[in-house]
Amino acid sequence: MGESRLQAVVVTLCAPGPDRASDREALVAAVASVTGVETVAVRTGRVCAHCGGTDHGRPWASADGDAVGVSLSRAPGALALAVGPGAVGVDVERVSRVVAAPLDAFTVGELERAHGDSSLLAACWAAKEAVLKRDGRGLRVDPLAVDVDVTTGTARIEGVEHPVTITWPATDLVLAVAADGAPVVSAGGA
User: Fold this and answer.
1) What is the pLDDT of residues 88-105, one digit of tens each?
2) What does each C-alpha distance from 189 to 10, 79, 170 come to in angstroms?
3) 31 CB neighbour count, 10 Å cutoff
4) Where are the strands (E) in 50-178, listed by range?
5) CB of 82 within 8 A of CB of 71?
6) pTM given for the model
7) In sequence order, which residues have a C-beta less than 8 Å from that of residue 103 and are 6 or more positions away?
8) What is the DSSP letter of 91?
9) Pairwise CA distance, residues 186 & 43, whole Å
10) Which contacts qualify for 39-45: CB closer than 8 Å, 24 or more apart?
């Protein structure tokens, strides 16, 4: 299988479908749109790096035989789809839901840097999820093992800093993309 010729991660933010199959169709359409191929030339699936299962795990895609990085995330009323040149992780969160959740997932540094700002804490959570999705391990890693600095757009895990693009596309919505520093662009709406 060939490698992607994409130069940036393209993020589409839209309303979720009525079920996960609809969201998968939206991912296929996003890959086709970004790569310029017909939807019939797009293949997608999932694979768990831990157990090899194909009913869960990290999504994968190819467009006309070329591998592309993909990730998707759902929040109430929002679906984020990311398509890029390599491994990518995306997370979209409702700030109000993160604040309402009894999360014990923030490092001392994150709490100090946020100064009680719920929007910044939600951004930390979204960045943790995005980095761990890109990494392929997901929440098998303790979120406390990831320290996010929203100001610098970095997430440190196991002593290594990873760039994260964080945006607030709406008042109650935060979007984080981890793509190893690849540029991130919006495909309308994000």
Assistant:
1) 999 999 999 988 876 788
2) 11, 11, 10
3) 23
4) 58-63, 66-75, 78-84, 89-94, 146-149, 154-157, 160-170, 173-178
5) yes
6) 0.92
7) 125, 143
8) E
9) 23
10) 44/70
